[in-house]
From TrEMBL:
Gene3D superfamilies: 2.40.128.20. GO terms for molecular function: lipid binding. GO terms for cellular component: cytoplasm. Keywords: Cytoplasm, Lipid-binding, Transport. Pfam families: Lipocalin_7 (PF14651). It comes from the Eukaryota. The gene is Fabp6. This is FABP6 protein. Transmembrane segments: none annotated. It comes from Prunella himalayana. It is found in: Cytoplasm. InterPro entries: Calycin, Fatty_acid-bd, ILBP. Residues 9-26 form the Cytosolic fatty-acid binding proteins domain.
């Protein structure tokens, strides 16, 4: 179907922009902010049509997994560990989720996973390269 992108794969953190301003904006505690800075997060995406399992592997063995179906409400967890409900939608080939205090989009651009989070005008961009 049109507008569906192939997200499946494993992606390793390559770089980001505006990290500090963004984590301040969303009120991430400084210890968590420090842990996440230039963190070689590996994002693993399993996609089956509109069903996704989105796992982030952090150095040291911690993982966060969000499982969702496009267009249906799902239980999600933020980068700060907060749990909430959200509905992920697909807009122009991007996955879009509204988190409690920011909007998150993900797309595949030139074979890279590009994630953009926006909170009160601060735009945080994270790019990960495909490794599998």
């Amino acid at each position: 179907p049109r507008g569906t992108m192939a997200f499946a794969g494993k992606y390793e953190f390559e770089g980001d922009e505006n990290y500090d301003a963004f984590v301040q904006k969303i009120g991430l505690p400084s210890d968590k902010a420090e842990m996440g800075r230039n963190c070689k997060i590996v994002t693993e995406v399993v996609q089956n049509g509109n069903d996704f399992t989105w796992t982030q592997h952090f150095p040291g063995g911690r993982t966060t997994t969000n499982t969702f179906t496009v267009g249906k409400e799902a239980d999600m967890e933020t980068m700060g560990g907060k749990k909430f409900k959200a509905t992920v939608t697909m807009e122009d080939g991007k996955l879009v989720a509204d988190f409690p205090n920011y909007r998150h989009t993900a797309e595949i651009c030139g074979g890279k996973l590009v994630e953009i989070s926006t909170s009160s005008g601060v735009v945080y961009k994270r790019t990960s390269k495909k490794i599998a």
